[in-house]
Amino acid sequence: MTLVEQRPRTGRTGTRRSAVTGGTIAWVLLVLACWGVLLAVAAPVSTDVPVLRSTSPSAGATARPDDLLLRFDRPVPAGLATVRMTDPYDRQFDPGRPTHPDGRADTISVPIPKQKYAGTYHVAWRVPTNQLGSVGGTFTFDLASRSPVPDAPQLGAGPSAVATICYAVAQFGGLAALSLLVGTVAFVAIVWPNAVDSTAARRLVAYSWFGLFAATLAVAVTYGPYAADAPLTESIHFGLLVGTLQSEMGATLLARFAVLALVGIGLAQFMSSAPAQTARSRSLGGGSVLGCAAALAATWSFASHSAVGPLVPLSVVVDSVHLTAAAVLAGGLVMFAAVLRRKDVVADLRAIGTRFARAALVCTGVLMATGAYQIWQQVGGFTTMSTPADWLWVAKIALVLVLAWIGLVGRWWMGRPLGPETVGAAKQRRAKRAATAGLPSRLRRMVLVQAGIAAAIVAATTMLGIGQPSRIAQAEPVTDRQQAPPARLAFDTGGRDGQGSFDLIVVPTAAGERELHVSAFDPAGEVKDDLTITAVFNPPTQSDKPVPVSLRKVAAGYSAGSVHLPSSGQWELALTAQSADGKQQTFYGVVGVA
What we know:
Layout: H1 10-41, E1 52-56, E2 62-63, E3 67-72, E4 82-86, E5 92-93, E6 107-111, E7 119-128, E8 134-143, H2 161-191, H3 199-228, H4 238-246, H5 248-271, H6 279-302, H7 312-339, H8 349-379, H9 388-415, H10 425-437, H11 441-466, H12 470-475, E9 482-483, E10 487-492, E11 499-510, E12 513-521, E13 532-538, E14 547-549, E15 552-555, E16 558-564, E17 569-578, E18 584-593
Parallel strand pairs: 2-8, 8-9
Antiparallel strand pairs: 1-3, 3-6, 4-5, 4-7, 7-8, 10-11, 11-12, 12-16, 13-14, 13-17, 15-16, 17-18
């Protein structure tokens, strides 16, 4: 008897398991890298409006400076701000694009002409907000002496139609390229893994990646004229480009570029790898694709109105899932239409169609659920529809429902078994027609209709992204975003180093809500940081109690706080400044609450 020693079979299995484990780790690291870069570079836009807390020269001041300084309560993009002046002879002039003096992100500066005239100057300013609107105001200052106040400079009424159209086209191009890229790769990963060997699929992925890169670049170039109400001819103006990069939108676009670069590396590896042969491999690839796609989609969510209301993190997540589902569906339909033109997939066409129909139904369900949440969050519910944008939401959800119904019909058609009456000659004729035409014309027309509806959904998403939700438009209309100038109050506590001035402004933020901003300066106009400042609102009637303001120190010489005044009427504001030696002075003013 001859004994044949059997070699252990664990070598090949272990190698295969190691490869699978290595691939899993690589995909997980790629997804984590995309999200890590996104969270490190970008952040959801703030819904707060910048507040002008101090000016130099101050409102009503008499001085002879070389530069005009405007200080805000937060960083603002100087390149996107607009400042105009009118001299004492009622002549308006443009001092140029503002800059950040000495790198101070919360301050913008413009030069005052060297040829100065004694008298009163009138200044108009405006900075963009993160709700795609703007906030502005006017104030005056005097050089050497006072004169009759000239008319306020005229600022543009809003972005030009050309700038708005170009920005909207760039945004639509970005969403369309995102949909094509995500949908194609998801189709390859989940529905038809053998497409990694298809030249057409590889070209579609490459074209959509470069298209998304180009569209993002176009958004970066057109955002400046759109946000700064400047003509499109200034789109390559250095100051506008710098202002875009300094804004929160610019940070989000930089994050999109970075995530797109990481996604490109992953796509090159994915499209050159062997097709997935198991359900586990397809699930791993599909999950990785969706994770990276969600990171890309989040760059739209971070820069959109999904960050409205108290549930900002949840809103951003829901918006990212919504965009990802829309991209998988829209791009997948394009890829499926391309598959229908191939003659070498007839044998697998039923399985491919069934898988895609299942994925499409999941996407439409996600779109309906997340769309309903967005309507509640941004509009306030179906019963508060009042603007065209609100009804656009309804139209978008209706298109999703139509898409779901067509998908159900397609799923039934693709899953319908061949009956006895189709066997024989009829089956041969159908096979022949499928080999020559790719698929019966009924399904081709169905896919084309779905692709058109998906394109309409992407267009509606673009329009909703560049417009204002009802909650913002109704709470604070663009035409009402005019800010009063800060008041300059000279103080003298009577103690050592107890002289200087305040720039004080009280800003209404909601019904009964007020924000108080106080900036302290010494007699030379430099920041003064050795004062203790307290504030209290005394009620108009004895039935209410005084309401103290919890002031917090935000920066050197600058304190801010908010307070809720429970009743309407004329409230008395008592502002007390105490110097280091304990001596103090109190100012009184009246603040009306409607």
